[in-house]
């Protein structure tokens, strides 16, 4: 596969395609200055990014939409050049809420459609206005999950043209099989967005998804923030790894660039999040070198099979996805 900065799209099973490198936009709304996401998306588009990954619960989709619209108005891009992924949150799983939730996202973005809409997590929370509905003890109130019913409502959104493609996120093999084996399945998930990087290479899930023509989109592709309130910090920081840095030195590249290149050579889509202009540009400079088979194997051997993002606070949810092997 000849990947270039101008064209690094890979096909999806429904006939659409997805760029292998995208910009993640997750940010803690409490700690992120207003406008940071807007500027970052504009810089990313100017740099050459055409894939933006967002979500309603990041509270910044209005900035993403504004950046895309401004760049279209400048004549820098057309709407069809951009691939935007939005996500259905845990409180919106009941089928009757799926389309209204997507319509709300489109209204915030001020766009007519999203390119990919995914179920963010297989765990449903109690529907309502609270993003994190809690009982009097401060515990999240769960809701009974019927992933197949939610999926049917996602299919209807695709039929209505509100989402070009539909997929899932954080689903394990059992949950994917539940959808794939659903009677009357109309569209299978085109993608599964999961944590994926050299310390957590997901070989079994990757193989399962390949067999079913499901593209893996890797979040936290550079490791993740070291925020111990929600991240497992027992694993060392990925980008300090001596093997990655040694390979980087050979190509005059950073460890981050080596890691991103490793993933795209495996056919894994990556969505590194950065609001730092220099890093946004650096993360895009991965199309002017390639790793040898030996280097790919060396990096694969770094796998520790340990997640950074464990979501342990919800591990008692009946559909918590990470108890299964994969």
Structural commentary:
- The chain is an alpha/beta fold and 326 residues long.
- It has one domain: TIM Barrel.
- The protein has ten helices and ten strands.
- An eight-stranded parallel beta sheet has the order 3-4-5-6-7-8-9-10. Strands 1-2 form a two-stranded antiparallel ribbon.
- The chain starts with 8 loop residues before the first strand and ends in a 26-residue tail after the last helix.
- The model has no long low-confidence stretch (mean pLDDT 96).
Q: How would you describe this structure in keywords?
A:
326 residues; single chain; 33% helix; two-stranded antiparallel sheet; TIM Barrel; alpha/beta; globular
How would you summarize the topology of this molecule?
Elements: E1 9-11, E2 17-19, E3 23-24, H1 36-47, E4 51-53, H2 61-73, E5 83-88, H3 95-109, E6 114-119, H4 147-159, E7 163-169, H5 173-180, E8 191-195, H6 203-211, E9 215-219, H7 242-251, H8 255-265, E10 269-270, H9 277-284, H10 293-300
Parallel strand pairs: 3-4, 4-5, 5-6, 6-7, 7-8, 8-9, 9-10
Antiparallel strand pairs: 1-2
